[in-house]
Design a protein that fits this description.
Cytochrome p450; mainly alpha; disordered C terminus; globular; two-stranded antiparallel sheet; 405 residues
Length: 405
């Protein structure tokens, strides 16, 4: 490429002589690509885009794999770009400090406060401190003790599906998985009584709208109301566990916060009361949501691919690979957002510090440059690591035409 081409950003386009229309054509082409990419992103909010975003991701990857939206956010669709951003410590979380700089008035929104102040949106050392405190109560022994109970709950969920489908009926798979499996497992682990699971589901769904790609003003208002309701609920739960502790995570975190050693430390490592409430809300909400999405998406993929389901029935040793393929094929975590600590470049696109970089994991996991026949569901697949649950983010389905990007 010539120096003139580099100056004009016309890689592969002949340099223009005086009077040439080449620069105008280049600008017109760049504008066309930008407009088409924005239209593709907007189409994710349609019923068709919500039902199956993957053809849209493929078109966007081919058209503009590093796309700068009108707001300045950068959206990535290639596996290598998404992996580099999510694994690079110089790309950080949407922390409260970042929100203070770029989202005026966010602290006036209970829904945004309940989101951006959780450990999901903290950078080290805060993230490390909160994760360590939770890990101390969330022990492998505690999780393993639930194994028999989880198996019994799974049997109950399958019975509910079979009963609903008897005599040619249909089953609300997501509803059954939520109330018969996901909420019982996470609820008992965290300490949320069974009598509260059903009414908390609506508040969880409303609050999760804060971290969707597409969120309307009405949904944000509903998220604010849900955040306040959930805070009141978990404040009452914490008060109850202080009076009568049980063997759940809520009791363990209360004991951690109230221990004499924590009170005497004075080094800022103690779990604050607000962090306690936010952590319990986050663990219950994120655990339930991610489990429901993974189970529902994986089940739907197996139903749509009966040969793969039969393969799994014949070889239970493929179970771990089947989960991995379900995470790749239709992940519960559809995107992750990161913020560069300093000016950077991704695929030749300048990325200023503090700008929002959105790695579209659903697109990355179907990148043909990294996965053979990426649109095929194949539980015997081998290949690179899937970009899904190892990342600090949550599931996503586009919901409305109002987008923060």
């Amino acid at each position: 490429m010539t120096a003139r081409q580099r100056l004009e950003g016309t890689d592969g386009v002949a340099a223009a002589e005086p009077g040439d229309a080449a620069p105008a054509r280049v600008r017109d082409e760049a504008s066309r690509v930008r407009d088409e990419a924005d239209a593709l992103l907007a189409s994710l909010a349609t019923p068709e885009g919500r039902a199956d975003p993957y053809p849209i991701f493929a078109r966007l990857r081919a058209l503009a794999p590093q796309h700068r939206s009108a707001s300045g956010s950068i959206l990535l669709t290639r596996y290598d770009d998404c992996a580099s951003v999510t694994r690079n410590p110089e790309y950080r979380a949407q922390s409260p400090a970042w929100a203070d700089r770029v989202i005026p008035g966010w602290r006036d929104s209970p829904g945004q406060v309940a989101t951006f102040e959780t450990m999901l949106f903290r950078d080290p050392p805060d993230h490390t401190r909160l994760r360590k405190l939770v890990s101390g109560a969330f022990t492998p022994r505690k999780v393993d003790s639930l194994r028999g109970e989880v198996a019994a709950l799974a049997d109950r969920a399958l019975d509910a599906v079979a009963d609903a489908c008897a005599d040619g009926g249909t089953a609300d798979l997501q509803g059954i998985l939520a109330l018969s499996l996901a909420m019982p497992v996470i609820g008992r682990l965290v300490g949320v009584p069974e009598t509260d699971w059903r009414h908390l589901r609506a508040s969880i769904s409303a609050l999760l709208n804060v971290v969707e790609l597409f969120t309307s003003k009405k949904e944000l208002a509903e998220a604010d109301a849900a955040a306040l309701a959930l805070r009141r609920y978990f404040a009452d739960l914490v008060a109850e566990r202080r009076r009568s502790p049980l063997g759940d995570l809520a009791s363990a975190l209360v004991a951690t916060r109230d221990s004499p050693d924590a009170r005497a430390s004075g080094d800022g490592s103690r779990l604050t009361e607000e962090e306690l409430l936010q952590t319990l809300t986050f663990l219950f909400m994120a655990g339930v949501d991610t489990m429901i999405n993974l189970l529902a998406n994986g089940t739907a993929a197996l139903i749509a691919h009966p040969a793969q389901a039969e393969l799994l029935r014949g070889d239970h040793g493929l179970a771990a690979a089947a989960v991995e393929e379900a995470l790749r094929y239709d992940p519960p975590v559809q995107f992750v957002a990161r913020v560069p600590a300093a000016d950077a470049t991704i695929g030749g696109v300048p990325v200023p510090a503090d700008s929002l970089v959105i790695a579209l994991l659903g697109a990355a996991n179907r990148d043909p440059a990294r996965f053979t026949a990426p649109d095929r569901f194949d539980i015997s697949r081998t290949g690179p690591a899937v970009l899904s649950l190892a990342l600090r983010s949550r599931g996503w389905r586009p919901k409305s035409s109002s987008a923060p990007w």
